Automatic annotation (TrEMBL):
It comes from Dietzia timorensis. The chain crosses the membrane at residues 7-28, 75-99, 111-129, 149-168, 180-199, 243-264. Keywords: Membrane, Transmembrane, Transmembrane helix. It comes from the Bacteria. This is Cobalt transporter subunit (CbtA). InterPro entries: CbtA_put (IPR012666).
Length: 283
C-alpha cells in the first residue's frame, strides 16, 4: 500500500507542479517583471535621494545576474515548481499512509480527498493567511531569514492545530455524529486565531523597525520636502500575485488528491480481491 501511495503522490505532485509552473508563467510572470522593474526604479530613486543629501556619495551600480531572466523564468522556475510538487506529493502520500494504518480496514477511497485538503491547509493555506506570498520588490532583504523561519514555524503550529482538530473529531464522532466535524473545525479556527495573534507582524521585525518602516510592502519614495518621487508598490499587482500563488498551490494539491484517489481505489480493489480469495479458500 505504501509503495502505491508514494509513487502516485510523487508522480501527480510532479505533474501538478509542472501545470502550476505553466499557470504562473502565463499569469504571474508579467507581474514579476513589473515588480523587478519597480525594484530597480526604487533603488535608483533612493540612490538619487542619497546623492542629494550627501555630497560625494558613491554609486552602487548594477549587479550582474548569475542567471539570465529567461533562464530564471523557464528552467529555474519550472524545476523549482516540479521539485516542490514532488516534495508535497511525497509528504502527503506518507501522511495518507499513516492515516490508513490508523484507520486499518477502512475504505481508502473515502479519505484521499480529505487528507489532501488538510495537507493543503497545513502546508500553504493556513500559513499564507498570516504571511502571504510576495513578488520581488516586496519585503526587506534583511528579513528573508526571519520571514522564512516564521513561515516554517507557522506550518508546524498549523499542523498541531489540525491534529488537535482531528483528535476532537474522533472523540466526539460517536456522540455528535456529523456535528463532530463542526466542533473540530471550531477548535481549529479558535487555535489559529490565537496563533495568528501571537505570531509577529512582518512590519514589526527588527530590520523593518530599524529602517523606520512598519510595513513590508514598499510605500512611496518622498524627498525632504514631502514630494513623491516614486509611487508605492502597485496594490493590484500585489493582490493578483498572491491570488495566483494560491491558485498554483491549489493546482498542485488538486493533482495530488487525484493521484491519491486513484491509488486508494486501486488499494480498495486489491483488498476486495484478497478478501474474496480468502472467502473461497475458507469455503
Amino acid at each position: 500500500m505504501e509503495k502505491i501511495l508514494t509513487l502516485r503522490g510523487l508522480l501527480f505532485g510532479a505533474i501538478g507542479g509542472f501545470i502550476a509552473w505553466i499557470f504562473m508563467y502565463v499569469m504571474a510572470e508579467p507581474i514579476i517583471g513589473r515588480a523587478i522593474d519597480y525594484e530597480e526604479a526604487r533603488s535608483e530613486a533612493m540612490e538619487a535621494l542619497e546623492h542629494t543629501h550627501e555630497a560625494g556619495g558613491h554609486s552602487h551600480g548594477g549587479e550582474d545576474e548569475l542567471f539570465t531572466r529567461s533562464i530564471q523564468e523557464g528552467l529555474g522556475a519550472g524545476t523549482g515548481m516540479v521539485v516542490l510538487g514532488l516534495a508535497l506529493g511525497g509528504i502527503t502520500a506518507i501522511i495518507f499512509a499513516l492515516w490508513m494504518h490508523y484507520r486499518s480496514g477502512a475504505a481508502a477511497g473515502r479519505y484521499a480527498l480529505p487528507v489532501s485538503g488538510l495537507a493543503f491547509a497545513v502546508f500553504y493555506l493556513l500559513p499564507t493567511l498570516k504571511y502571504p506570498a510576495n513578488p520581488p520588490a516586496v519585503g526587506n532583504d534583511d528579513t528573508i531569514e526571519a520571514r522564512t523561519g516564521l513561515f516554517l514555524l507557522l506550518i508546524v503550529l498549523s499542523a498541531v492545530a489540525v491534529l488537535i482538530g482531528v483528535f476532537v473529531r474522533q472523540k466526539l464522532r460517536a456522540r455528535l455524529g456529523a456535528g463532530s466535524m463542526w466542533a473540530a473545525a471550531g477548535v481549529v479556527i479558535v487555535l489559529m486565531i490565537v496563533i495568528y495573534a501571537v505570531m509577529p507582524q512582518l512590519g514589526s521585525l527588527e530590520a523593518n523597525a530599524g529602517s523606520g518602516s512598519s510595513f513590508e510592502t514598499p510605500g512611496p519614495v518622498v524627498d525632504a520636502e514631502g514630494h513623491i518621487i516614486l509611487e508605492g508598490f502597485n496594490a493590484d499587482d500585489l493582490y493578483q500575485f498572491r491570488l495566483y500563488s494560491l491558485i498554483a498551490q491549489a493546482i498542485i494539491f488538486t493533482s495530488i488528491a487525484g493521484g491519491l484517489t486513484l491509488a486508494a481505489k486501486k488499494i480498495d480493489a486489491l483488498r476486495g480481491i484478497a478478501s474474496r480469495e480468502r472467502a473461497v479458500v475458507a469455503a
